């Protein structure tokens, strides 16, 4: 849902996202590419896209928008996008960023996915097996264990695919839903593991889209 803006809000200065902060690049066709700020100065941002993509054309660069979260909501910034180094087309510079509007929406794409995960509270020693109900680049919804309470800090080891290293890190239980499932927001996760998780989510989405298309062809 879009938030209403007044003249006072439009005139407020917008704090740019900090280095290391998760953002997204929105394209003119409606796509969103998970990204991260890797550099910042008074009037520009350097942003690395976390998902491999082909280099943008000059025309496509003109249609890009930067999305990020702050206490006011989901911020949209426009400006002059460029590729500083042609050898690194996944790194963009945004010059003279300008405030566009505030939106309310999720920071990360979330998908339903049942994956095995080992969790234990900070201070405990025994890992408890569980599984995810859904996953995103910012957290997990867990089927259990029932011993976890809101506010608990937990370590987790999430298996995305058999035979691959787990995605590991630390998070915090932020809520328990009516079904007793635990929502965990990430607090510590390596950049590599977050990229692996985001890529896994995008691959799951592609698979679902292909299945939908195939089912449509069979029905036809």
Tell me what you see in this structure.
With 220 residues, the protein is α+β, with helices and mostly antiparallel strands. Helix content is 18%, strand content 44%. It is built from 3 helices and 13 strands, in the order αβββαββββββββββα. The strands form 2 sheets. The chain has a 6-stranded antiparallel barrel. It has a 6-stranded antiparallel barrel with strand order 8-9-10-13-12-11. The longest helix has 29 residues, at 191-219. Residues 1-12 have low confidence and may be disordered.
Question: Nutshell version of this structure?
Answer:
This protein has helices at 7-11, 58-62, 191-219, and strands spanning 22-26, 32-41, 44-49, 65-70, 73-82, 91-103, 110-112, 116-121, 128-136, 139-142, 153-158, 167-176, 182-189.
Largest sheet: 6 strands, antiparallel, barrel
Question: What is the residue-mean pLDDT, rounded to a whole number?
Answer: 81
What are the segments in which pLDDT stays under 50 over at least 5 consecutive residues? 1-12
Q: Order of strands across the biggest sheet?
A: 1-2-3-6-5-4
Distance between the termini: 36 Å
Number of DSSP E strands: 13
